[in-house]
Amino acid sequence: MRRRIFAFGLTATLISSPAFAQGQASAPANGSNAEAGAFILKLAERVVTGLTKPGVTAEERDRRFRDLFHEGFDVPAIARFALGRYWRTANEEERREYLKLFEELIVQTYAHRFTGYSGERLRVVTTRAASDGESVVTTEVIRDAGAPIKVDWRVFKKDGSYKIYDIVVEGVSMSITQRDDFAALIQRQGGKVAGLNAALRDKIAQARTN
Question: What is residue 12's predicted lDDT score, i.e. its pLDDT?
Fold first, then answer.
């Protein structure tokens, strides 16, 4: 569960982790790679500033979290990837409901976790170009106790803005993990996306009461 916090809370990375914090790049980068690293740090700074400030109500925190989630992540692409091959078998109504439920699950599950922020720092280690305009920003989450946690952010430019589409925590892809979890859940629900949607509604209702 601790790893999943990094995934989607604005991810957001499901930005979905209270371990976001202000930081600074520790390795040189050029061009778009440098821009990608700066994007991650700026997003982290906005998360900490907007979501951990004393006096922010739960409703306002949810709203800010949702806004930053959409701003920083390619939410539709992540949601579709998480559904995997079942996207093709779902009808349009099931797809529309699933996309709404996916977003709401992330918001309701992770937004409140920022109340537990305890000053962790995000440090950019390297940035590098990958294929098809993708950049990988390698960071470390520096904690007061325990070894740093390595986190890779896979980002690309979409309509002139950077978007995160996967987070890899200590070598584990959060998008792939979520897809595997959903596939297992769908199988338990008779192989139907409608069953997944019903389960997500239940999870959202439970998260709202926690």
Answer: 36
Q: Which residues of the chain fall below pLDDT 70?
A: 1-32, 115-120
DSSP of the chain: -HHHHHHS---------TT-----B-S---HHHHHHHHHHHHHHHHHHHHHSSTT--HHHHHHHHHHHHHHHB-HHHHHHHHHTTHHHHS-HHHHHHHHHHHHHHHHHHHGGGGGG----EEEEEEEEE-STT-EEEEEEEE-SSS--EEEEEEEEEETTEEEEEEEEETTEEHHHHHHHHHHHHHHHTTT-HHHHHHHHHHHHHHHHH-
Residue 56: other Cβ atoms inside 10 A: 15
Question: What does the pLDDT read at residue 202?
Answer: 94
Domain limits for position 153:
2-209
- CB distance 22 to 193 below 8 Å: no
- Domain count across the chain: 1
- The pTM score is 0.80
* CATH number of the domain that residue 27 is part of: 3.10.450.710
Tens-digit pLDDT profile for residues 67-120:
989 999 999 999 999 999 999 999 999 999 999 999 999 888 887 777 666 566
At a CB cut-off of 8 Å and minimum separation 6, what does 125 contact? Answer: 26, 27, 138, 139, 140
